[in-house]
Amino acid sequence: MKRRTLLKQAIAVSMSFLLIVLIFSILMPPQTVTAVKVSAGTPSPTSGTVGYDVTFTNVSVTIRGPEAIPINNLTFTVYNNANNATVSYVIFNITGHEISDPDGRFAITLVTDISSVYQSSGSYYGYDERTNWNGTGYPFSYGYGYGSGTAQKIVANFTIVYDTDTVGTFFAKLSVNSSKHTYVSVASSTFTVSSSGGGGTPGDDDDDVVDDVTDDDVVPDDDDDTGAKVVTIPESELADIKSDYGVNLTEPFQANDTDGDGNADELYDPNDVLTQVHEVITINGNATILISVDEDDIPEFFWDTVANTITPITPQNAQIQGDEVINQDEGKITITISVEKVESQWICIDIEDKYPNYIVMIKTSDGRVIPNDMIWRKDGKIYVLDDPATEYLVIYSYTPSPTPPAGDTTPTEKKGDMPWLLIIVFVTVVIFLSVVYLFKTGYLYIEYEEQPKEFEKVEEFEKIDVKADKKTTTPKKGSSSSKKKKK
Predict the structure, then answer these.
(1) What CA–CA distance (Å, rounded) separates 144 from 124?
(2) Taken in order 359, 365, 366, 372, is the CA torsion positive or negative?
(3) Residue 372 has what DSSP assignment?
(4) Residue 259 has pLDDT above 80, yes or no
(5) How many degrees, rounded to 5, is the angle at CA 470 between CA 466 and CA 474?
(6) Which residue from 133, 153, 276, 478 could staple onto 29, CB 3.0 to 4.6 Å apart?
(7) CA atoms in the 13 A half-sphere facing the CB of 443
(8) Contact call for residues 358 and 398 (beta carbons, < 8 A)
(9) Residue 10 region, left (φ>0) first, then alpha (ψ -120 to 50), else beta?
(10) By the 8 A CB rule, do 392 and 374 touch?
C-alpha cells in the first residue's frame, strides 16, 4: 500500500512538472525566429584573370509563410577579402531592375518573381530575430508587404554577373532594405582575380611576383608605340606643391592612360607620398585627378592632366539645416545643408551619409545638379567637389513599396493581446482538465488522517447519552402526566 502511494505521488509530481514546462514553452517567446533569410549566392568560377566574369547563382530573399515585409531595394556588394573595403556594388529592386550601378560592372537576371505576391494588410512580424520582446509586437513589424499570406514561404531568386577589374580575393554580400530594418546576408564564398600575365594569385611567394603592389606603384608606360598617354607634372607646379603643403617630393609625379582612351587617368608617384582620391573626373572637358597629400579621402588639390595645372581645394564640413523632408509617394528623402562660401575656390564638402543604401543626388539651392563623378561615398561619408554655393540639397531616392490601403499609410506594429489571451485560456483549460483526470484516475487524491480509537469510544458514549436523554424526556402514551393534561 505504501509503495502504491509513493508511485502515485511520483506520477503526480511528474505531471505537474510537465504542465509547468508546457506553460513556459508556450508563454515564453523563442530566442530566434527566422522571418527573412538573405543569401548572396555562390560565385563561379572562383578564379580567373582580370576582366573575367563571376556569376553568382541563387542570390535570394526568402520570406517565410507567416511573414510579410515591404522591400524598398536590394544592394549586392563586392568586398575585398583583405580589408573588407567595398570594391563595387549595384542597387536594384525586387523585379531585378537596376537602380544604380556606378561602375557599370553588374548584370542582373530575375529568376523567380515575387512582385505580385503582396499583402496590403495583416499582422506580420517582419523581423528575423526575436531579441526585444515587449509584449505588444516586434520593433520592425509592418502590417503589410511581400509575403504569401499562407503557410507557404516565397523566394525571390536572382542571378548576378560581376565583371572583375581588380586583382585580389573578394567576397559578396546581399542586403535588403525594408525601411525600418536592413537584412544582410552572410559573406559568400570567396573568388580570386589574378593579373592577366598569369603570374599566379596575389600574395604568392613566387620570386617573380611582387607583393603589396598598389595602383599608385604602377610605373607609366613611356613606349610611344603603345599609344598610351603619359603626363608629367612641371617643375614649377611641383615647387608650389612642396611649398604650399610641406611635402617632400624629390621626383616629379606622373599620370598614366590605363585604358587607352587618350586621357591620363591614374596617378603614379615615385615618392610614395601622394594618393589619388576617387576616380578620374572631368572639369571643363579635361581629365582631372583628385590628389591627397596625407592618404585620406579629402583631396588637397586637383590636377588637370590636359592643362597640366594644379588647383587647390578647401575642405568644408556640412551643417544640416532643419528636419528631413520625406516623400513616401516618390520615394525621396531630402536633407538641406549649408557650407561656408569660399570665394574663387573649389571646395570638398564632407557630409554624413545617413542612408548609404539609397541613391543620392546633390543639388544646389538654385537647382544646379552636381555631376555624379564629383560625388563619392566611403565609410559613412559623402564627399562633394564643387565650385561652391552656400546651400545644397542632399536628395536620397529609393523604390517605394506598393502603397498600403487607405487609412493604413503608417506601418503598424503587430499587436499580440488577443492571441496571447486565447493561449492563456487554452493553457488554463488544459491544466484544469489535467487535474480532473488525475483525481478521477486516482493519481491525485486528498488524504485524511485516521482518528484515534479513544476518540471513537468517546464519540460512541456521547451517542448513547443522547439516546438516554431522549428516553427520559419523552412521555409515553397513557402515562399519568398525560392523563392530567386531558383533565
Answers:
(1) 7
(2) negative
(3) G
(4) no
(5) 170
(6) 133
(7) 14
(8) yes
(9) alpha
(10) no
Quote the CA–CA distance of 89 and 101 in Å, as a whole number: 7
Query: What was the pLDDT predicted at 486?
Result: 46
**What is the model's pLDDT at position 454?**
56
What spatial distance separates the first Cα and last Cα of the chain, rounded to whole Å? 69
| Cα dihedral 33, 34, 35, 37 in deg (nearest 10) | 170
At 123 the pLDDT is 53
Helix 417-441 to helix 2-27 angle (10° resolution) is 170
Q: Give the pLDDT confidence score for residue 257 in this predicted structure.
A: 87
Which range of 178-187, 234-243, 463-472 scores highest in mean pLDDT? It is 234-243
- The model's pTM is 0.43
- List of domains in the chain: 1-30+417-468 (no CATH), 36-194 (2.60.40.10), 215-397 (no CATH)
Answer for the pair 121, 411: CB distance below 8 angstroms, yes or no. no
∠ Cα 436 441 446 (to 5°): 70
**Distances 276 to 127, 269, 353, 366 between C-alpha atoms, Å:** 42, 10, 22, 31
- Using alpha carbons only, how large is the chain's radius of gyration in Å? 40
For residues 34 and 64, is the Cβ–Cβ distance under 8 A?
yes
Distance CA 216, CA 275 (A): 7
Supply 415's cell numbers.
499587436
Cell of 311: 588647383
Query: Tens digit of pLDDT for each residue in 113-146?
Result: 887 787 776 555 544 433 333 333 444 556 677 8
Q: How far apart are CA 92 and CA 72, in angstroms?
A: 9
For residues 275 and 216, the answer to whether their CB atoms sit within 8 Å is yes
Q: What are the CA-CA distances from residue 363 to residues 102, 324, 366, 374, 382 (Å)?
A: 18, 15, 8, 12, 13
Instruction: Please report, rounded to a whole number, the percentage of residues in the chain having pLDDT higher than 90.
Output: 25
Q: For residue 336, with 0-12 CB atoms within 10 Å meaning exposed, 13-18 middle and 19 or more buried, which class applies?
A: middle
In whole angstroms, give the CA distance from residue 205 to residue 196: 18
Buried b (16+ CB within 10 A) or exposed e, 311-325: eebeebebeeeeeee
Per DSSP, the three-state class of 31 is coil
- Mean pLDDT over 41-58 rounds to 93
Residue with cell 515587449: 134
SS (H, E, C) 178-240: CCCCEEECCCCCCEEEECCCCCCCCCCCCCCCCCCCCHHHCCCCCCHHHCCCEEECCHHHHHH
Q: How many angstroms separate the CA atoms of 152 and 322, rounded?
A: 45
345 Cβ contact list (under 8 Å, min separation 6) = 312, 313, 314, 388
Task: Kindly give, in sequence order, each residue whose CB lies less than 8 Å from that of residue 167, ignoring residues fewer than 6 positions away.
Answer: 50, 193, 194, 195, 202
Residue type for 19, please? L
Tell me how far apart the alpha carbons of residues 373 and 265 are, in angstroms, rounded to a whole number.
13
